Predict the 3D structure of the following.
Amino acid sequence: MIEVSQRKKDINEVIKKYCSSSSLKAIGYDYSEYGRAYHFTNEHLIELYNQIDFTNYQTGLCVLSSGDHAFNMIYKGIEQIDTFDSSRLTEYYALGIKKTAIEVLNYREFLTLFSNSLFRNENELALEKYVLSCTSEEYKSFWIAFLEARKKLGEEKPTIFTICRDVGIIRGNNLYLQSESAYNRLKDNLKYARLTYTNADITAVSNIFGTYNVINLSNIISVLDSYVEPAVIHNMIKIIYDHNLNQNGEMIYDYKYMEDVISDDEYFLGVDYAPKIIRKLAGDEVACLQKR
Ligand SMILES: C[S@@+](CC[C@H](N)C(=O)[O-])C[C@H]1O[C@@H](n2cnc3c(N)ncnc32)[C@H](O)[C@@H]1O
C-alpha cells in the first residue's frame, strides 16, 4: 500500500518530469527514482526460465521493471514473489496497469491494448474504460492525474516508456503470451500469487529481503557495469547469493538479450558473461562467479 503522502509526491514528480513542455524532448535511458518504465521485457525470459525446473519452487525475487520477470515466474507456479526496482514508476505501470489488465482483459484484448504505445489516444480511452476502472484506488488516482496533465499538452505527448516493441517481440520473449491458454494459466495463477514491490536499489537487496528459491537480477548487472567496478559488482552478487538464495535455489545474474534477433557474442562483443544461471549446492563456493 502506497502512503498517501508518497503517492502525492509521486504524482507531482512524474507530472513535472513527463508532462511539461521540456519533457517532450527525448529523455533517454535513466535509472533514477522516476526513471522511464519498460513497456515489456527485452530479455529472452522464455529461454532463461525454461532452463530452470520450477516444480518445487514457491518463492522468487526479481527486478520489477515491466513486470514481465515476475509474471513469467508466476506463470511457472511461483506463489510468493517479491520485486524491487529503483524507479517508482514501475510499480504504477506493472502492478497498477499491466497486472490489472491481465486480470480483466482476455488474451486478444490484452495484445491489442499493449501491442503499441499504450498511451495513444484510442488506447487511452480503452485504458480508462476497462483497466483503470478496475485497478485499486492508489494506482487509479495516480493515472487519472497523469492522463489529465497530458491532455493539456496537445498532440505531441511525452512517453514514460523506454522502448515499445511490436507484438511479435513481446510474444517472443514471454511465456505467458505464447498462447491463449498460457495467458489464462497466468490469470489463474495470479489469483493465488502474493506479489510485492519495494522501492530499492540492488545494492540494498541483501539487507531488505529474505531467502528465495529463484532470484533473477536481470540485466541490472550489465547496467551497473558501465559505472561500477567489476570487483564491487562481483562482491554484491556473492552477497545476494550467500544471504538470499536458498540451498538448491537458482539465481539468474546476467542477461539474455531479446529473442534470437542478435547473438550474445555480437551484443557483448566477446565479453564473457556466461554462465547466466547458477544453482546453490551444499558447500558451493560460487567458483563460477570468479570468471567475471
Ligand atoms: C536494467 S533495466 C533493463 C530492462 C530489462 N532488461 C527488462 O527486460 O525489463 C531493468 C530495470 O532495472 C531498474 N534498475 C536499474 N538500475 C537499478 C538499480 N541499481 N537498482 C534497482 N533497480 C535498477 C530500472 O529502473 C529498470 O526498471
In short: The mean pLDDT is 84. Residues 31, 35, 38, 41-43, 63, 65-66, 85-87, 90, 201-202, 218-220, 223 surround S-adenosylmethionine (CB under 6 Å). The longest strand covers residues 245-252.
